[in-house]
Target: Dolichol-phosphate mannosyltransferase
Amino acid sequence: MKENLVIIPTYNEIENIEAIIKAVMELEVEFHVLIVDDGSPDGTAAKVKNLQKVFDKRLHLIEREGKLGLGTAYIRGFQYAIEQGYEFVYEMDADFSHNPKDLVRLHDACARQGNDLAIGSRYVTGVNVVNWPMSRVLMSYFASKYVKFITGLPVNDATAGFKCYRISVLKKINLDKINFVGYAFQIEMKFLTWKYGFKIIEVPIIFTDRTLGTSKMSSGIFKEAFFGVMKLRLGSMFKKYA
Model:
């Protein structure tokens, strides 16, 4: 069984893509990387194809037509991981807001400590965010408090996008029935992991906002998350989780 697959969704990440791939490939633990590119017009996919000549069987690419959303990119990556027989699957941004070195800590939390989901958490030991405006820090922090209050999810960073899943979690969750695509996607996946009784741990990280490229955040993503949380809570009242 192959062990580690890091999924990195991209849209116009030409400024970051080569550096982030090389940073992951140089870690002491061996990781494979899957880039899921949404038709980036800046040539991101072409750069990945060139790098495949260097990293051979460790670097993979899925090209999609058009900007289809973060959640669907990860779901496509999860399906690929299941098909290819990976044991641990990671979510990570392309812009270095997640430190590649922390992948090793997430790996240890699952592979050595026996957890099923390890979350790179900005809020488990206070507020560990660098270069965000205070308004965005507060919105993100209190969004997690809101999720915890409404759903009971025992996680301090409910919207975190830096994670390691044991493949059994992704096989258990019906990926075709995931409803959301933005922040709410991250919340929904954690919520279902918890509801199915999997073991979750938060690993403290320092989140640093991107220095190159453009953020994909929008007000629509926050709106989806706000109302999506209520939908999750109501839906769970009428569902049994094995």
Q: What stands out?
A: The chain has a mean pLDDT of 90. Residues 2-236 form a domain with the Spore Coat Polysaccharide Biosynthesis Protein SpsA; Chain A fold (CATH 3.90.550.10).
